[in-house]
Amino acid sequence: MNRLLTTAAVLSLSLASMAQAATAESAEAKSLRAECAAQKQVKFDAPAADNEFRFVYSKGQYRGEAKDGQPLDCAAKQYSQFLASADPVRVMEAYPTAAGRAKVGAKAASK
User: Fold this and answer.
1) Which of 11, 19, 71, 78 makes a 20 to 30 Å CA pair with 111?
2) Does an H or E element contain 17, and which?
3) pTM, full prediction
4) Contact present, 83 and 91 (Cβ < 8 Å)
5) How far apart are alpha carbons 36 and 20 in whole angstroms?
6) What's the burial of 93, exposed, middle or buried (CB within 10 Å: 0-12/13-18/19+)?
7) What mean pLDDT is reported for the chain?
8) Tens of pLDDT, residues 46-60
9) 3-class SS at 23?
10) Eight-class DSSP state of 47
């Protein structure tokens, strides 16, 4: 009975660590996201007032709240387009199975 409980505990710990590793983003993926954010910087004409919030949208997708000195993450569509144009070697290093990679929307074929 003890052996069965020990085996179940070890199995659950290994599954939990595998799930955490699957959801954690690699350093290369974080680098790609930072590069996308740097290319898609948001600029305003005037500085924000003390009590003003600036929410940024890109083609209907929420990107986040603009704060001074902090870059905004790319929207999902922006990131997938960035990955399509990025170096394929870097993209495959970041997403070796392409399971976590955002899909690029395919354009409809014209007749």
Assistant:
1) 78
2) helix 2-23
3) 0.56
4) yes
5) 25
6) middle
7) 74
8) 777 777 788 888 777
9) helix
10) P
